[in-house]
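Protein modeling request. Please complete all fields; requests missing the sequence field cannot be processed.
Requester role: graduate student
Desired output: 3D structure, token encoding
Chains: 1
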Amino acid sequence: MTEVIRCHKLVKHFPIYGGILNREIATLKAVQEVSLSIDGGKTLGLVGESGCGKSTLGRSLIRLLEPTSGDIYFKGENITRLSGARLRSLRKHLQIVFQDPFSSLNPRMTVREILEEPLRVHKIFSEASQLQRRTKELLELVGLPLDALNRYPHEFSGGQRQRIGIARALAVEPELIILDEPVSALDVSVQAQIINLLLDLQRQFGLTYLFIAHDLKVVEHVSDEVAVMYLGHIVESGPSRSLYQNPQHPYTQALLSAIPLPTPKRNRQRIILKGDVPSPINPPSGCPFHPRCPKAQPKCEKEKPILQKIPSAIPTTASDHNHQVACFYPG
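Delivered output (331 residues):
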């Protein structure tokens, strides 16, 4: 399987300014030496608590945010230091669908103008007839009527607005789409429609997704592989089936224990973590999870574990052996 995107030790820090002279007084460490990859036509699910750095990682991968350090490779090419025309030409291959389908659409532009804008920017079509044909195709792809072209975003429901956002991302025929919590602001029934639409589009066009979400059941449904993020670090990753059936990191185990069961009479031991998530401005030394970990040992306070492959309890394919965990005492 051809690798579409990969990052190596990606870091993103945000300086914090304050004081009378507005000097840098601290640094928010949003993403800390993250390495991951996504194969073509596959979906990597990225999960974790709010504020752990998921959205920052997604935006850094496509250079909407400039990484502090590290490398990003798109189809083998290091894109970290690209600029100017070369970076603009790359943009059409890397697109994003944002969480809020209302604030991500310009309220002063009609749907036609929203869909035509990326086509004009990237000079894919210039003639009016070509633009008209393409915008109609995009609406049909996402299941919206043709009369939507002359309407404004406020005239649509949340699910319809998200379909417009998906159509805009598809306009330039990208290879990778970052889906930044694309269904979290929608009703449950509408969530299912949008998820099915995304899966249909992936099969039709061979798209590659980074699916960022809080809903662990949705991630299990749509993802080929899953990465669990905590305080800017990837603490566990692997094939969806292996990770959900055999979680190794204490944090992953706690997250999965919170998934509601479809049968209320079934009992599941809920793992309640102690304390709060530490501040990314002043993260703990050693393992970032050790202040809340039920298995923490003195070693965890001083040394930082790295992702290491573990034997899968249910290996059926070669990919099932790619289960990795960053923990001194997994299982």
